[in-house]
Amino acid sequence: MYLEINVSLDAISRKLYRSSLNYNADFRFFVSKEANGEPLETVVRTLLGDNAEIGNAHAVTKRDVIDEFKDALGYRGDHGSHPSLDYLDSPESRVDFDSVICKIQHVLDDSFDEIQSFWLKEGHPFYPVFWDFAFLIRTGGESVLFIGSSSD
Known about the structure:
The chain is of the alpha+beta class. Helix content is about 40%, strand content about 30%.
């Protein structure tokens, strides 16, 4: 399931980049069975490396995850930097976005209610400039990080 989601996220990232202006978006699910049940800091360091450092963390709802992801997908930028507006305004983007949101919703439906939003002081796997998000989602057998950001 996570591989399928990451493939869909990569395809969306490429389409947002196509005919963009100084804009790149990255999204990824990182999964660990070994760090399941461990504190957030341990999960993050297990998945992102020892230099990863957590800023603030707080509990969020499943709806919050979807809403923040939708906001990121819909980000239009400005005259100096923006995603592919042709893609954003296309029926293709609606199909792509709805499909991946449905897949992510399945992960959230299988998760426990304990979801944390956090930010990374150090060790971010991408280069956040315009927006970024990071969530820890705990399922029955795995700890999952869902991270996204955009840059120029």
